[in-house]
Amino acid sequence: MKLGIIEKRTFWLLMLASFFNGFVNGIFNIQDVVAKKALLALDWQITILVMLWPLSNLFSIWWGQALKHSKSLSKFFILTAFIGRLVLLFMLWTHSYYSYLIIMIFVFSFNSLLSPAQNAIYQNNISVKNRGSLFGYTASLLTLIAIIFSYSAGKLMDINEDWFRYIFSFAGLMGCISSLLMAMIKIEHRKYNAAKIKIRKLIVTPIKSTISILKKNKDFAIFQRNYFIYGIGFMILLPSIPKFLVEYLNMDYSQTFIAKGVISQLGILFLAPIAGKIHDKKNPAFFTFIAFFILGWFPLILLISNYLIGSGIENYVVYFGYLIYGIGMSGIVISWNISSICFAGDDDVSMYQSVHVTLTGLRALIVPFLGYLLLKYYGVKIVFIISVSMFWLASILSFKNYLRMSKSDFSYRNQFDRILNYFFRITPRG
């Protein structure tokens, strides 16, 4: 893989940023269990907490609009460093669920800025043929650090669960460094709207732009619909997971962190670079068809483990489920972060990715709360069954979308013609 000068410099800064950001991702994997065990959060409080990340994504279209009118992205990364990451230092004085919640609101709100800003870097500084591969390497490094950090945190908190305050504060410092490294990445020829944007337009224009993008780009709209269905399957699980691991299976910190923070990340660690290379060569709809199908096995395996409680092997079945989850997520991590570039074409991808991220927030308004109600009145079994159904429905629809998109560009007839042209080239004369 040959990289240009700008690509090399960008890639190494992205790798360094991913190293430090891995500590923040480590706490993302365990923050719900910490609230459940260390702060004794109730089920409805856990539901609010797990809604934070997707709900904060509602801000993404406004971040995207601000990025669209900015010549430099550096100031946004610096803002994230000092407000969205260093805020974790306040965990040192946290002794209640509500103060914990407020801090995490800041963290996740600024996190919704990073994805569209990062996509703008990949669109402008990384060539099409290298995007998936290079993103895969950064994702693997980030995951490796998250795994080590999550495992270490579990061991430390089994000794003294109050140490979560120091663990989260340390992650905040590392996250600050990560964002400052991202701020050092320069984009030479990025297209942006130099016109000053008024406050009213800043509020209204992103909503209009979102509707416009989905109307004019049918492929992107259908892709987002399928992602929305997948997201229902994913988010409906969120309130149930901490309760299932802590109360049903009686897992301690080490066991829960091994499942959620280590085993669930192994697929991303080892397969993200491979998934990135495949993504560079495959239709995004076909890519998500496979990822959604694999993820559907995760809630099914959790459902099976529920019937094995008391057998002595239930925890190992859950570990296996998280291994499958990690394999599926290796595809989702790539697709969720860079598939928008495929649909944006020559348009500014930051707005496309903002639409993608914001739709995550829209489903978060309803789905986790629905998951909580189903958990409360019907138990975890029905939640797992609905989750499986949504994952596999999204997979089927993604495959149908792939076939529809393939009619013009990848039809069997076109493929046959290309094969004939390859073997029987006719060189024009004259």
What does this structure look like?
Helices cover 79% and strands 0% of the residues. The chain contains 19 helices and no strands. The chain has helices spanning 5-28, 31-37, 43-56, 60-68, 74-85, 97-125, 131-159, 164-183, 199-216, 218-235, 240-248, 253-281, 284-295, 297-306, 314-344, 349-364, 367-378, 380-409, 412-423. It is globular. α5 runs antiparallel to α8 (164-183) and α14 (297-306) packs antiparallel against α18. The chain is an all-alpha fold and 430 residues long.
- Give the class from helix and strand content and strand pairing: mainly alpha
From the N-terminal CA to the C-terminal CA, the straight-line distance is 37 Å
* Biggest sheet statistics: none
Tell me, briefly, the overall form.
Answer: globular
Q: Any idea what the radius of gyration is?
A: 22 Å
Number of helices: 19
Number of strands: 0
Task: Let me know the average pLDDT.
Answer: 81
SSE topology string: HHHHHHHHHHHHHHHHHHH
Query: Helicity range of the residues?
Result: over 70%
Strand percentage lies at: under 5%
Unreliable sequence segments: 410-430
What is the topology?
Layout: H1 5-28, H2 31-37, H3 43-56, H4 60-68, H5 74-85, H6 97-125, H7 131-159, H8 164-183, H9 199-216, H10 218-235, H11 240-248, H12 253-281, H13 284-295, H14 297-306, H15 314-344, H16 349-364, H17 367-378, H18 380-409, H19 412-423
Helix pairs in contact: 1-7, 1-8, 3-6, 3-16, 3-17, 4-6, 4-9, 4-16, 5-6, 5-8, 6-15, 6-16, 7-12, 10-16, 10-18, 12-15, 13-15, 13-18, 14-15, 14-18, 15-16, 17-18
Descriptive keywords:
0% strand, mainly alpha, 19 helices, 430 residues
